[in-house]
Amino acid sequence: MAEKEQAIEKLEQIKSTALAALVEVSREEDLEAWRVAHLGRSSAVMGVFSSMGKMDKDLRPLMGKAANEVRQALESALEEKQGVLAEQALKKALATEQLDVTLPGRPVTRGRLHPLTQVLGRITRIFGDMGFQVYRSPEVETDDYNFTYLNMPPYHPARDMWDTFYTKTDGVLLRTHTSPGQIHVMREHAPEPIRAILPGATMRYEQLSARSEIEFAQVEVLVVGEKVTFAEMKGTLEDFAKRLFGEDARLRLRASHFPFTEPSAEMDVGCFVCGGTGCPVCKETGWLEILGCGMVHPVVLEYGGYDPEVYSGFAAGMGIDRSTLMRYRIDDIRHFRNNDIRFLKQF
Ligand code: DAH
User: Is 35 exposed, middle or buried (0-12, 13-18, 19+ CB in 10 A)?
Assistant: First the structure.
């Protein structure tokens, strides 16, 4: 019996020593050391467990239970202490680390539209005012749409006007201009009248330089109906160009050739840089070419599903990169697509 009481007393002592030590702990980071000392493998309670083999057989269950109770008591005391210390730490942080809500916030940088998107937006608005609708057509095209339906059959030398990216799939290429969209719109709407613009990316296999990129943006214009005339084309395009470049812009229409229009023309605007006297930007001509245009060729109308005996139409195509370049006097076309914020921020 004396052995039992002695053992119980020892356990009680272990417990009170440990609890007293815990009271002394005042920082969260010291709790672990306490746990190792009082609940770890070489702690006193654990020592009681391992010495149990030497005890009297009858005593063992009793002592086991008592030792377990002490261990559990210490564990819950530790847990409680952890809670108390954590709360104290939080209170302290709240009291000392004050949030200064009067500090100005970090500025949020505002995005803006890319210069090409801005110009495209202006072009779209002008044509929108005139009752044109905006269409999208594929950037990956077939040989037929890019060439054949535009009156350039296979092996026709006019195809050489466009340096083309062909894909590994036979007859599939990256469109070299937005003109194939004309066929898509016509096939979708024949025989209804059409007034549409088709903006989008076009790709040409070209050497990169300050003046050319492999990707650039074009806007195609298409009008089809009964008795559409060249005079209407001239009026529409001049009105458009004056709204885009300013009422006093000087314009001229010059004869040209495209396989998909007959007759064909190009429109020039007086050079913004020299005002017409001649400079390197306009190659000393005083004029800058802004678009190609013409009356839709009968073969193209037919491919689009319109009877050329009844319907006529006009079309135009303009590259917006180069005119944006000239408008803002940008020295290198490659700035548009290399995403340098310092460049883009200026517009
Ligand atoms: N597709 C031509 C090009 O990229 C531009 C063009 C010229 C489009 C005359 C037209 C047009 O619609 O009528 O060079």
Answer: middle
